[in-house]
Amino acid sequence: MSQALVIVAHGSHLNPGSSTPTYDHADRIRASGAFDEVREAFWKEEPSFREALRTVAADEVFVVPLFVSEGYFTEQVIPRELRLDEWNVAAWDSDGTSASHATLEAEDVGKTVHYCGPVGTHDAMADVLVQRAESITDDPDVGEGFGLAVVGHGTERNENSAKAIHYHADRLRERDRFEEVRALFMDEDPEVDDVEEFFESDDVIVVPLFIADGFHTQEDIPEDMGITDDYRTGYDVPAEVGGTRIWYAGAVGTEPLMADVILERTADAGADVGEAIDRVRADATGAAGD
Q1: Distance between terminal CA atoms of the chain?
Q2: Closest C-alpha among 142, 143, 144, 163 to residue 152
Q3: What is the DSSP letter of 288?
Q4: Are residues 145 and 203 in contact, defined by beta-carbon separation less than 8 angstroms?
Q5: Which residues pair with 76 in a beta bridge?
Q6: DSSP SS3 for 180
Q7: pLDDT digits (tens, 9 = 90+) for 240-250
Q8: Which residues of 118-138 are buried (b: 16+ CB within 10 A; e: fewer)?
Q9: 69 Cβ neighbours under 8 A, 6+ residues apart
Q10: What's the chain's Rg over C-alpha atoms?
Q11: Are strands 111-116 and 101-106 parallel, antiparallel or unpaired?
Q12: Which residues of the chain have pLDDT under 70?
């Protein structure tokens, strides 16, 4: 039976670069040969969620949300727009960070759909965060003497958003690679505005757990941290704030290794991806070191 992958992402009417990581990761997976078809679909751009399943010929489709956390989009919008009539969020049996997959029938298009949890809560994301730290410092062994801040939006509307940030910060802390690891937020305490106050390390790597660079990662966070007074003039990497060197990495979702997380999600749901995970991981880590 042929199998297809559909990567679903938010997209943006205002930021034309919002969809770039989605297309980049899709291209990497397409080149790996893991799927007969690879498609992209968006909420705020074309092609849309609603038409996604109609664009593939395969009978078996793996749908992976390129979102940071479980919540409104992964639990309501995407299943509704894909017309997964049997969908019930209880099928994930999730505590907010543990959604895996659910297999459903999209009867209007006659396809079996394996609906996966979002990439942002998969355990492999910890590797991407580390890879992002290596990329921004150009040091494959970075860790000793460095603090690491995992930054999220933070919102009262979705408590799972903060759960995902804390989850990965806790897992990275357990690795004992970095001197300190903290979860920080834009809109709730502890706030990224005061990043240097939460670390004793002289060097702190700041990685936003966002899928794409946009208004928040390119404008708000740099200005809030004080590494620039005006985002339009840019900022140094590292930039010094209050005696602390801030290595600002930008959105983690732009890291090539994100393609590996997408593949990991499909493999967990039963996709036959062969050796594609190893190939994509090797290519992505090699790209980061070039």
Answers
A1: 38
A2: 163
A3: H
A4: yes
A5: none
A6: strand
A7: 999 999 999 99
A8: bbbbbebbbbbbbbbbbbbbe
A9: 96, 97, 118, 120, 121, 158, 160, 161, 163, 164
A10: 19
A11: antiparallel
A12: 155-157, 287-290
Tell me which residue of 9, 20, 112 sits closest to 28, measured CA to CA.
Answer: 20
pLDDT score, position 287: 61
For 140-156, the pLDDT digits (tens) are: 999 999 999 999 987 66
Tell me if 106 sits within 8 A of 53, measured CB to CB. yes
Q: What is the pTM of this model?
A: 0.94
- What residue has token string 């990495």? 249
Shortest CA distance to 231 belongs to which of 243, 251, 216? 216
- Separation CA 135–CA 123 (nearest Å): 20
**Residue 44: predicted pLDDT:** 95
pLDDT at 285: 83
Long-range contacts of 83-90 (CB under 8 A, 24+ apart): 83/50, 83/53, 83/108, 83/109, 84/113, 84/115, 87/115
Kindly write down the DSSP assignment for every residue of 143-168, as one continuous string: TTTEEEEEEE---TT-HHHHHHHHHH
Q: Can you tell me the distance from the alpha carbon of 148 to that of 152, in angstroms, rounded to the nearest whole number?
A: 13
Dmax over Cα atoms in the chain, in whole Å? 61
**Token pair for 146:** 């460095």
pLDDT at position 187:
86
Residues comprising the chain, all counted = 290
CB atoms within 10 A of CB 50: 13
Q: What domains lie within the chain, and their CATH numbers?
A: 3-121+255-289 (3.40.50.1400), 125-254 (3.40.50.1400)
Predicted local confidence at residue 36, as pLDDT: 97
